[in-house]
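Recap quiz, item 2
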Amino acid sequence: MSGLLLPLFGGALIGISSFAMLALLGRITGISGIVGSVLTTRDGNGWRWAFLAGLLLAQPMFYGLTATPPPLPSDAGMLLTVIAGLLVGFGTRLGGGCTSGHGVCGIGRLAPRSLAATATFIGTGMLTVFIMRHLVGA
Amino acid sequence: MHILMGLLCGLTFGLGLVISGMTDTRVVLGFLDIAGNWNPALLAVMAGALAVTIPGFWMLKKRPAPLLAKDFFVPAKGVIDRKLILGAVLFGSGWGLYGYCPGPALASLLTLDWQPVLFVLAMAAGMIIESITGKRAKP
């Protein structure tokens, strides 16, 4: 249980950030939506770029302050990295959201679409890991 | 003001991801691996976040406007369609292959390891491809 305190606390920070974004700016904090917008539209992206800058800076700040090393990157090869990245990028935009937009904000609003999407991507993620680890990689 | 708030919220969000262990692909894949040594961390992250957003968003419903903007930009409640489910299936399979969803991939970018850099480039390409093909599909 004590191993879950940091995930709970980190999750609460994510929730506080998402709450503040809606309360202050009236925006849903969906990472894939924010990235998709700055990639494909021109205007009104100031807050999006600022959010992304903060998101990127958090990690070096945290590991700088705590003087601990960040987690090791995945040991997947380049081909798998590219395929997974393409699927995540294409899929999150087609489905209108990712773990943050659907999982945290959409379920936070009790939106049926987000519940369905979250159940689907967690289920598919579990199925993929099962196939890769227990059928292919076994 | 929007820029400053965006930056602070992004920073808080990123710290949340880093502190909760979500930038470690092993932790995320450990959650998705129900037939292995299951790691419930991601469930705790979701619970921690939803414990704030569910009551918080419910409170905001009664307000006419956000504090620093004229309107709430909230998607209309739509139907559960094929696009939503197909998108979630594709996203879930990429997530299960690697262990990054968009937030943790971006939050890992400044380690400057080639893995998050290549992943984010491929993810951006996937988003641009979707934007182009999505526009074409519309009549």
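Residues 114-137 of chain B form the longest helix (24 residues).
Chain B is about 70% helix and 0% strand.
End of item.
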